[in-house]
Amino acid sequence: MKVQEENMEDERRDEEETTPEQEEEVMKAALAERWQLIGGHTPSSSSSFSSFPFRGGEEDEVSVVIVTAEDESCPSEPFGTAHLSPTNQDAGMEDGGDMKEEEGEVTSPSAHLQQQMKRKLDHGPDGRTFPSGKKHCKGNGPLGPSSLVQATPTTFGDLRLANGHSAQRRRVTSGPPPTGLQDWLHTFQMWSGPERLLALDELIDRCETSQVKHMMQVIEPQFQRDFISLLPKELALYVLTFLPPRDLMQAAQTCRYWRILAEDNLLWREKCREEGISECESSRRRRCGTAVGPWKSAYIRQHRIETNWRQGDSGEPMVLKGHDDHVITCLQFSGDLIVSGSDDNTLKVWSAISGKCLRTLTGHTGGVWCSQMSVATVISGSTDRTLRVWDAESGECVHTLYGHTSTVRCMHLHGNWVVSGSRDTTLRVWDVSTGRCEHVLTGHVAAVRCVQFDGRRVVSGGYDFMVKVWDPDTEVCLHTLQGHTNRVYSLQFDGVFVVSGSLDTSIRVWDAETGNCVHTLTGHQSLTSGMELRDNVLVSGNADSTVRVWDVRTGRCLHTLQGPNKHQSAVTCLQFCRGLVLSSSDDGTVKLWDLRTGAWLRDVVALQSRGSGGVVWRIRASDTRLVCAAGSRNGTEETKLLVLDFDVDDKKTETD
């Protein structure tokens, strides 16, 4: 007992005689050992240790030790860490420190100091473990104390720590460690990397489910890193471009920094571009002075409009009555103007906002069978064998185009040129601004029923079962597309593919350059009366009461829009955009379908006389409005236009 007391006295004397230089050497040794354990290099001679007092309160004073070292693998990037220890060594001794006194064994002062430093390196000032292998960097200079205190959390574990939660993971406390554990761990550390992986594989195979679950709980937090906050802003924004808009909005709720990124205007401009939302729509939102960026505001507005389409939030339709009991044969819609043509020899210009008839265009001496519209310019074709060019704003007839010798049955406007097809078997190319006929295309041997023009080539379909591709400048027929066995009633042309629909029940896809038939689309049972082609997706409406969606590149039918809610009579007209398909029918309804799934969504319009004579002849739609031309063939429904508005309230959009 006396010997033990003498030894303890010697230890206390040695501790009192420890110089600051010795303490620093011990500190360096401890730091070097710790740095090697977490995968770093041994601090070189250029490593620096600096210490300064920091008073956290009236009584508490700690010494902050800053250690910076030059990483040999990346000399230009200094790294460092900091550790806090009480300036009063007695305080460290009074709280127990790492002093061990078991069965008369007492650690030396130097060993105690080294253990204390290692504990602080391992657990930090608040007892938490520093993330293993993480380098704390600050630009190109030494790490300052302020940056250490305000370090941004980079793992979910760090985030929990920032909120005051303990980082100490739950340890198994079922009893003392098994015999031989330390020997097994030592052997494991002696193995090479591949050998360790093999051992882990074998170990996992022998584990029970509860044991594997425990390993997952330990391992998973190590990989849950907020990598976005670690990236440069430009790269973080690039990563976020891969998220769909709905996920972007959820990401904005994660934390403040993610919200800043997710609100970026250029990021939302890209999302608007993907959805086909135009710049003019964004500019409109900017003028409204929305709180969020104009592109995000435009996207949100478009999303709400689509929701209105899908869920039916349009209010009561506006009814525009005119043309008495005559048939509305053609319908155009541009901006806030609606133009309807009828077999009563007139066209009417309506306001889509007020529903008022602004003016009636008179001059034709026969029924109007076709029309085209660009901004405020309207062109009409009639059974009186003429075309007329109108100013919709003033109601004035600007030009009367003479040349055809029979009914003008179809036309297509592109820029300042309009191409007309007639029952006289010819096509004519007109300059709208002068009213002059510049070219005559002859070659069909029966009435021309449909025409398309892309500014470079004219495509026509006729009652002679033929489809022809023309060069309008030379008036030469480039290709005669033969294959249909009955009249051609409908055409689509996107510059690459020509798609023709016929009374022979088939739809044919042609290569516009070679004139070859690429695909024959079969499935319809009657006349294909209307088609829409966009981005290689074709939607066709047929007299068999069905609508089909096709991929023109493969010739495959993607969807047949039918089922218990399908049309009960011939499809008269259709349109599709933004993932939605609208179809009208002789059954007196307009139905809305999901283009991607082929599912029926709802009946947008259902006439009171549906099923007993009510007909929806034509439909035209913009992003926010639907215009329907309706009536009947037996007097059960008066002739009228229905206007449905799916737009959203600007003020509501701004405040949401």
- Give the number of helices: 17
How does the major sheet shape up? 4 strands, antiparallel
Rg (C-alpha, Å): 40 Å
How much of the sequence is in beta strands?
25-35%
Tally of strands: 37
Region (Disordered): 1-25, 72-141
Protein name: F-box/WD repeat-containing protein 7
GO molecular function: ubiquitin binding
Subcellular location: Nucleus
Short description:
By secondary structure, the protein is of the alpha+beta class. It has 17 helices and 37 strands.
Structure description:
This protein has about 650 residues and is of the alpha+beta class. Helices cover about 25% and strands about 35% of the residues. Among the domains are: about 150 residues, no CATH class; about 80 residues, Up-down Bundle (Monooxygenase), CATH 1.20.1280; about 140 residues, YVTN repeat-like/Quinoprotein amine dehydrogenase (Methylamine Dehydrogenase, Chain H, 7 Propeller). The strands form 10 sheets. It has a 4-stranded antiparallel sheet, with no helix packed on it. The protein has a 4-stranded antiparallel sheet with strand order 7-8-9-10, with no helix packed on it. Strands 11-12-13-14 form a 4-stranded antiparallel sheet, with no helix packed on it. A hairpin with a 4-residue loop joins strand 17 and strand 18. Helix 2 packs across helix 4, helix 14 packs parallel to helix 16 and helix 15 crosses helix 16. The radius of gyration is 40 Å and the shape is elongated. The C terminus is likely disordered.
